[in-house]
Every structure is written in structure tokens, then in C-alpha cells.
Amino acid sequence: xxxxxxxxxxxxxxxxxxxxxxxxxxxxxxxxxxxxxxxxxxxxxxxxxxxxxxxxxxxxxxxxxxxxxxxxxxxxxxxxxxxxxxxxxxxxxxxxxxxxxxxxxxxxxxxxxxxxxxxxxxxxxxxxxxxxxxxxxxxxxxxxxxxxxxxxxxxxxxxxxxxxxxxxxxxxxxxxxxxxxxxxxxxxxxxxx
Length: 193
Description:
The chain is α+β, with helices and mostly antiparallel strands and 193 residues long. It folds into 2 domains: 13-131, ERH-like fold (2-Layer Sandwich); 135-189, no CATH class. It is 40% helix and 16% strand.
């Protein structure tokens, strides 16, 4: 099931005809191809409006969009302090909407405005954490307990601290098959962790 179902409940009427739903073929994270999670709509000042569905960790997703696609215009973005970063983001992004839903509420769960350049004093990804699947901690725990991670730690013990090893391991292994099955089972059941 890869068809994108368009849901506009809760979005301003003025956005309905401007939203471009990003197709799966442009989505590189394997978790974005598994039903469930959250939907995120990003409205830019230049009138572009992009929507992404089936996002498991919207805070990380929006941060990655910013860091890979937009902040390239602003060299050394990550070296700026939070206020400078916020100003740069507010110059580009107008509003962000998100919704988190159970399978049975997919068509009726409304979007909420979670970030607005006029009123927000937090970075967008900080505001989106409430829409992340609570399973991130579970995901990290499962990765830390996996035999693959233990083997990786033993093989790389001398090269890395344990914290750096976990980060590198998670970056190399997008998601274990067990965790993907866990996500699919819970999204089908409509269970929120």
C-alpha cells in the first residue's frame, strides 16, 4: 500500500489547493514506506507547501529536511546559536502542521498548527517531538539489546566509546526487521505506544 491518501482536516482552507504531497519514490527513509505515524505539512514563505505522511519521528524528519535541503543556503548553520538559527528558519518557513493518528481515526484526526514563524520561540523540531512515535525509546532499547549491536560493540570496542558506537550503529542500520514488524503490527492495530 503506497498510495498517498490526502487528508486536509484541520488545515486552513487556503492551503488545500497548494499542498504538494511528496510521493514515496522521493522518500528515502524505509520507515516512510510503512503505514502509520504522523503526517506533517510544511508551509514556506515562498508559497510552497509540502506534506509528508507516515512519518515515524517528525522532529528528526523536519530537522533533516532543514539540514539537508534548506540550511545549505546558510553555511555553518549548526554553529549558530539557537536565536540565530531560529531567525534563519523563520525567514524560510511560515508554518508547520502535524497530526498523529490511530488507524481507525486516519480520516478524521485533524492537523494542528504546531509551529508558526510569528509566535514560536522554539526550533520547529523541538515542537514536533510530541508527534514522534513514543517507540523511539523502545527502538533504541531494542537496538541496544540486539545480538547485532553486541557483536558490533565487541568488534569496534577499541575504536569507539559506547555512546558513539550506538549512534554509528543506528546510523548504519536504519531499522531492524524486528522493529519494522513492531511498527507495522502496532499501526495496523491502531495501538499507540
